[in-house]
Amino acid sequence: MGITQATLLTLILLFNANTALATSPIDVVIYGDAHYAPYSWEKDDEIIGIYPTILRKAFSKMDGFRVEIKPVPWKRGLHYLQRGSAFALFPPYYHPKMRTYISPYSEPILSELTVLVCHKDIFQKPRHQWPDDYFGLLIGVNRGYELGGEQFYKALRAGKIRRREIEGTPKNLLMVASGRIDCYINDINAIEWDIKLLRLQPRYHTQMDNIVFGPIISSEQGYLGFSNQNNDKFYYKNDFILEFNKVIREMKKSGEIKELVREFYHHHHPSQTKKIFVE
């Protein structure tokens, strides 16, 4: 029996449709911290910073995926991962026991150095040992951040030290400068970035003189963290992770990530960031 022209045309159309489906990129949404300059922050409804710069370059090298990056307050982003409504979030540190809903973590993207800053009056007595020499003090952290180390959390549970979660680096720094909290933990580049930015504003300029850098707390790495909830929804997860990790490893080996970071700092300065108003 011969194939009619109508049947042949139908088969051609079906083949073309299936081919188009097979080659169409998968749309993926990735969330990033909206309040973590210079690493990632929201500006004019867009997320910018060092991590978005690196990730956009990495995603452009990945076949089969069309990725959109959206800003989100950090604690809300963690909640999205926990309930499985988000696929991935950057840049969590590696805390598999504290955040059991995140797995796997990607290839490490960047190394970060977490430090302690305190009101200058705190250092009127020698304080060399973290956290023992800081017992009795109130320590600020960004909302949803897990910083300070195991000994710090043991001291918290024992009531030897106190911790307060506050939204964003600028608010924490102003709380330290005014003496409303004693100290604050975060990445050194994030702290220095926002101190410079706050100094640009007359109402905050002199307050920054009250902030003194203390000890290094830890060296950390930033990752792309994936939700382990609702895996049926994210059927492409394994393929995405394999491709992403491959690209990041290649970018690190070639020195491309270091060059992107260098270019970012060359072209960006805290003065280009919107002014911060904290009441």
Could you please describe the fold and organization of this structure?
The chain has 279 residues and is an alpha/beta fold. The protein is 35% helix and 26% strand. The protein has helices at residues 5-23, 50-60, 74-83, 150-157, 169-177, 188-199, 237-254, 256-267, and strands at 26-33, 35-36, 40-43, 46-48, 65-72, 88-90, 102-105, 110-119, 138-142, 162-166, 183-187, 211-222, 225-227. The strands form three sheets. It has a five-stranded mixed β-sheet, sandwiched between helices. A five-stranded mixed β-sheet has the order 10-9-11-8-12. It is globular and about 90 Å long. Residues 17-21 and 273-279 have low confidence and may be disordered.
List the helices and strands and how they pair.
Layout: H1 5-23, E1 26-33, E2 35-36, E3 40-43, E4 46-48, H2 50-60, E5 65-72, H3 74-83, E6 88-90, E7 102-105, E8 110-119, E9 138-142, H4 150-157, E10 162-166, H5 169-177, E11 183-187, H6 188-199, E12 211-222, E13 225-227, H7 237-254, H8 256-267
Parallel strand pairs: 1-5, 1-6, 9-10, 9-11
Antiparallel strand pairs: 2-3, 3-4, 6-13, 7-13, 8-11, 8-12
Could you list some keywords that capture this structure?
279 residues; alpha/beta; five-stranded mixed sheet; 35% helix; 26% strand
Calculate the mean pLDDT score and round it: 91
Q: How many E-type strands? A: 13
Question: How far apart are the termini?
Answer: 82 Å
Low-confidence stretches: 17-21, 273-279
Helix content: 25-40%
Given the helix and strand composition, which structural class is it?
alpha/beta
Largest beta-sheet details: 5 strands, mixed
Q: Could you give the order of the helices and strands?
A: HEEEEHEHEEEEHEHEHEEHH
Order of strands across the widest beta sheet?
5-1-6-13-7
Multimeric organization: single chain
What integer value in Å does the Rg equal?
A: 23 Å
What best-fitting shape do the alpha-carbon axes yield?
globular
Residues in β-strands, percent:
25-35%
Q: How many H/I helical runs?
A: 8
